[in-house]
Amino acid sequence: MSRDVEAEVIGILARQAMLDPFDITNDLSPEDLGMDSLGLVEAIFAIEEAFDISVPFNANVPQGGEFDLSSVGSIVDHVKMLVTARG
Amino acid sequence: MRVVITGAGTINPLGADVPSTLRAMAAGQCAVTSLAIRDQRRLSVQIAASVADFDPSAHFPPERQRLLDRFSQFALVAARQAVQQSGLQLTGRLAAQTGAIIGSAAGGLSTSDDNFRAVYEERKSRVHPFTVPRLMGNAAASQISIDFGLQGPTFAVASACASSNHAIGLAFQMVRAGVAPVMLAGGAEAMLTLGGLKAWEGLRVLAPVACRPFSLDRTGMVLGEGAGVFVLEARDHATARGAPILAEIAGFAMSADGAHMVLPSAIGAERAMRAAIDDATLAPGSVGYINAHGTGTQANDFAESAAIAAIFGRRAAVSSTKGAHGHLIGASGAVELLACLLALNEGILAPTVGWRMPDPNCPIDIVAGTARRAVVTSCLSNAFAFGGLNAVLALVNP
Known about the structure:
heterodimer, A: mainly alpha, Non-ribosomal Peptide Synthetase Peptidyl Carrier Protein, Chain A, 3 helices, B: about 400 residues, Peroxisomal Thiolase, Chain A, domain 1, 2 domains, two-stranded antiparallel sheet, 14 helices, globular
């Protein structure tokens, strides 16, 4: 059964940013969603819990290191990759 | 600089604010009930004094709650009441100078407990990212500074059961020295968790049925939880703005036994009380009431009674309110200071709930049964902690 990763990730980001999922588009950045660094860390935690994956994110590295956080679309793509790799 | 209390706030097993707590203390009510926490069946202790029906959502929006351990929630609730009563507008220069010192023995223990459980028992590989900012001992002090935008001296004090008195005493010294015109100070504790209760069970000091301070038939202490926070203000600053003055803090002293981790020394307690009286330039004969540390353990009751008897004989009335609200550990001194306000402002000495029979090893004047009426112009509040740390506050009518 294939999960709708995109919808789930957007749902998590929407809950964190306290926005309607319909207002979240792939081109927006976490800053555009009004998320600060703590909010972003919390969202990544929620993503890890939801998909049982480990997100290689380091808050000390610009742009989070290996994990491309520049936009909602890049986050969704990376999570899809991690979910596929997990099997 | 003379220092006065211009605001008081609390949430504790007896009440969710100061007026309800004072009425319960005066009426000799007991808030000890059967304990019902997660995994209760794994505990031998079956009673505690908990803050029942506390709903964080009534005080904090969801996004704020995620950063608040239960002890910080209690501290914020108490601080908001205290600031509101004081009538202070904490803005501009005053906010820049004002700070908060909050005592706690265990800090965010619910957070530690929950997350250790997740890692060790549930074998989870990660915990919530806010675990550290929730559990750290200074979380309550920092949350108060954030709540009111305070930018002055702000930190936590940990001295087990004396944490509140040390916090209030340090804040008192700062205001007296002119370091800050206003300080928020008190204590908060929430350790009624499986891990916290197991730790206390290990010491074999918990009472099975009731806490009976200074009573011959004592069986130990009962754990509680809650917070108390006070607004301490330079007297001139308070009078200039026509603020309510609840009491004057006239003296403070602290000492260490330097002897034993859990067995208290009567000499250490006596030294702290004498030094507090000296600091307040009071004569022992003028002290009308002592709110005792009075844990209901044999070790405390004997040592504290000996110390009080050495200074006051039977001339000062003594009560412990721990039989009513339990032992709030790091928050105990703050909540118990309310009994001193009751004595100074209303002439009511709260009874030692649970006391049933005189103990020859406690040769002091214990207020028991029902509250006693007395005109009190000065009083002491004792706190004697594990680790042999003693902190005593002296309050007077302004």
